[in-house]
């Protein structure tokens, strides 16, 4: 939906293509966030090698790592598991947080490019040509050949009014330039949140197999009695439900917040949207924390046998 400066699209929009790969604005923003995190990590690592005296950037990095380490260790209660889970949880939290907050930076939504449309080809309606051959009349019209049986005394034809009307509507839709935002948070794209959810649940299975070996699958496939068989089916359904829950919770909260800010800024700019900016900063932080904490809980639960959970 767009109208004189108000632009809302539930799906990510194309910026450019690299071969057959289409790069959308959400993918571009996600790559920018990834580049920022990689550059930050490399810079801090280089400073650690150069001097033993902590700097401002190094202190900031240590604060983040120590806070996340304490958070993870508080859930696992095991230092070995904490060191194993921390890289994944920290990556989830920082990547999602930066994506959530990048869309709130003033001016980001106003950076736009003009989407290029391929010019619609003019469709010329050729005069009907009737050819009779072996009891058939061929009606040739607009490069389309239709063969219909008919008698020699009656020939009927219809003008392609629907095609002409569709062509006119298409031409009207493509009139005028369409401005596409360059930046769109990756978490405001359902494809990205779905990918994050699948990665989280996949890593959960990997940790489960690592700690419990093949016994991990006993909670899914237990045919000792009908009740446990049914419980196993529920466990399988639960794993897929986690993916849907992860994806839609994160996408719904971030996209709804962006729509709220856009609408408020369009109706009452400058002053009124400011409280909502503070609210969205908080929501962006909470959603990153919720996704990371739920992933951590699932990781930790996967390392315990099904019997010990009960």
Show the helix and strand layout:
Blueprint lengths: L1 E2 L2 E2 L6 E5 L2 E4 H26 L5 H21 L2 H24 L9 E4 L13 E5 L2 E6 L2 E6 L11 H13 L4 E4 L8 H23 L13 H42 L6 H29 L3 H4 L1
Antiparallel strand pairs: 1-2, 3-4, 5-9, 6-7, 7-8
Please provide a written account of the structure.
- The protein has 310 residues and is of the alpha+beta class.
- It has eight helices and nine strands.
- It has two domains: 2-115 and 180-309, no CATH class; 116-165, no CATH class.
- It has helices at residues 25-50, 56-76, 79-102, 161-173, 190-212, 226-267, 274-302, 306-309; strands spanning 2-3, 6-7, 14-18, 21-24, 112-115, 129-133, 136-141, 144-149, 178-181.
- The strands form four sheets. Strands 6-7-8 form a three-stranded antiparallel beta sheet, with no helix packed on it.
- It starts with a strand and ends with a helix.
- Mean pLDDT is 76; it is low at 118-164 and 166-175.
């Amino acid at each position: 939906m767009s109208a004189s400066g108000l632009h809302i699209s539930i799906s990510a929009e194309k910026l450019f293509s690299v071969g057959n790969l289409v790069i959308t604005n959400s993918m571009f923003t996600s790559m920018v966030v990834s580049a920022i995190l990689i550059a930050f990590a490399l810079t801090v690592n280089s400073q650690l090698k150069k001097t033993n005296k902590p700097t401002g950037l190094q202190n900031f990095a240590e604060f983040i790592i120590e806070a996340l380490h304490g958070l993870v260790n508080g859930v696992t209660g095991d230092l070995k598991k904490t060191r194993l889970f921390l890289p994944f949880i920290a990556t989830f939290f920082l990547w999602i947080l930066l994506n959530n907050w990048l869309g709130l930076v003033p001016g980001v939504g106003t950076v736009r490019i003009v989407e290029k449309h391929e010019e619609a080809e003019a469709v010329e309606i050729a005069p009907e040509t009737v050819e009779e051959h072996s009891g058939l009349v061929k009606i040739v019209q607009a490069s389309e050949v239709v063969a219909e049986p008919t008698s020699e005394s009656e020939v009927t034809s219809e003008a392609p009014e629907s095609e002409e009307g569709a062509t006119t509507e298409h031409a009207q839709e493509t009139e005028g330039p369409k401005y596409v935002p360059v930046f769109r948070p990756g978490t405001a794209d359902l494809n990205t949140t779905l990918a994050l959810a699948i990665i989280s649940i996949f890593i959960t299975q990997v940790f489960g197999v690592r700690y419990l070996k093949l016994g991990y699958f006993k909670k899914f496939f237990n045919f000792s009695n009908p009740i446990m068989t049914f419980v196993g089916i529920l466990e399988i359904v639960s794993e897929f439900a986690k993916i849907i829950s992860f994806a839609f919770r994160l996408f719904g909260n971030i996209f709804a917040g962006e729509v709220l800010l856009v609408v408020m800024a369009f109706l009452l700019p400058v002053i009124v949207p400011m409280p909502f900016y503070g609210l969205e900063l908080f929501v962006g932080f909470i959603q990153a924390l919720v996704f990371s904490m739920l992933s951590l809980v699932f990781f930790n639960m996967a390392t315990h046998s099904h019997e010990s959970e009960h």
